[in-house]
Each structure stands twice: as structure tokens, then as C-alpha cells.
Amino acid sequence: MMHRMFSPNHRKGSTLIELVLSLTAGSAVMLLAISLVHQTISVTEIAKHRSDDSRTLDRLAQSFRRDVHLASKVDLADADTLVIESFEGSIVTYNVRGRTIVRERETGKDGKEFERFSLGRNESLRLELLAEPDRARLVVQSDTGIPKRPYKPDLIAEAMVGRWKALEQSAKEAP
């Protein structure tokens, strides 16, 4: 028994082939792990951009609805400019400039307040006036890349002109 344990044929290490195979397997596992980390980072960035875009669209819709509900008059100066006059006499203007819409509000004699809303890469914006009852609509849509269905609406914000003033007057008239 003792003789076999110390014989020259008994080896304690591994061969070069075994070492190369284990390095190859380790490298493959490491490449898979790196690709998973890269995909995770990419998905995180996409989710962050979508979240930012969603918050921007929510803020834009809230501002647009509030301004139209407080309005006494709404007019499209041109296809890219909506002018909103409030009952108090202030004027709010929405200007579409490419993938950006700028909300400009007069704050006093010479004061103006600006708020900029930037849209995503594939999004476009449209302002519309609707009749019966008097309403304004803001439509944000994105290009789908599908020929038969080129656009998908991301946001449709529609508001009735002077709605809050009408509600205020009806509340005063109620017994």
C-alpha cells in the first residue's frame, strides 16, 4: 500500500489541457455575466428616460388643462401657437417648436414666466380647437415605425374653455 502512494506515477496537479478547459469555462461565464450587467444598465436607462418623459407629459397636461379651464377665450394664432386669455386678463401662450413646447405666461406689467416641455425623440405635438362645447386639445403622439399605423397617441389632453368659471357661477346660483 505504501508503495503506491509514493510512486512516480502518482501526480498531484492538473494537466495543461485541464487548465485551459477551466480557463475557457471561466471566461465564458464571465462574458455572460458582463453581457447581463450591460443589458441591465441599458434597460435601466430606457426606463429612466420613459419615466422622465411620462412626468413631463403629466406636467404638460396638468398645465394645459388648468389654463384652458380658467380661460375666457382660446385661439389658435397659427398651427403651432395657442393663445389663452383668462377672465383676470392674463395671457398664456403655448408655442410648439419642433419637439419642444414652451408655455409663456404674463405675470404682470413686464414680467413673463416661461416653462419648457421637451418631448422624446419620436414624439410630435399638435394643438387643436374643437367646437360644441368650446374645447382645446393637445395631442402628443409617437412614431411607431409601422407603415400601416405610423402614429400612436401618448397623450390626449382635452379641456373645456372656462369650465371652472362656469362651475363657479353655477355654484353661486344653486340654492
Helices, by number, come to 3
Low-confidence stretches: none
- Rg, alpha carbons: 32 Å
| Content-based structural category | alpha+beta
Shape: rod-shaped
Could you give the order of the helices and strands? HHEEEEEEEEH
Range of strand content: 35-45%
What's the overall average pLDDT, rounded?
A: 84
Largest sheet: 5 strands, antiparallel
Quick one: how many beta strands? 8
From the N-terminal CA to the C-terminal CA, the straight-line distance is 111 Å
Q: Give the fraction of residues assigned to helices.
A: 25-40%
Spatial order of the strands forming the largest sheet: 1-2-3-4-5
Produce the secondary structure layout:
Layout: H1 2-5, H2 16-69, E1 71-78, E2 81-86, E3 91-97, E4 100-106, E5 112-118, E6 123-130, E7 135-146, E8 149-160, H3 163-173
Please characterize this protein's 3D structure.
The structure is a single chain. A hairpin with a 5-residue loop joins strand 4 (100-106) and strand 5. With 175 residues, the protein is α+β, with helices and mostly antiparallel strands. It has helices at residues 2-5, 16-69, 163-173, and strands spanning 71-78, 81-86, 91-97, 100-106, 112-118, 123-130, 135-146, 149-160. The strands form 2 sheets. Strands 1-2-3-4-5 form a 5-stranded antiparallel sheet, covered by helices on one side. Strands 6-7-8 form a 3-stranded antiparallel sheet, covered by helices on one side. The longest helix has 54 residues, at 16-69. The chain is rod-shaped.
Describe this protein with a few key phrases.
single chain, 175 residues, alpha+beta, 5-stranded antiparallel β-sheet, 3-stranded antiparallel β-sheet, 8 strands, 39% helix, 38% strand
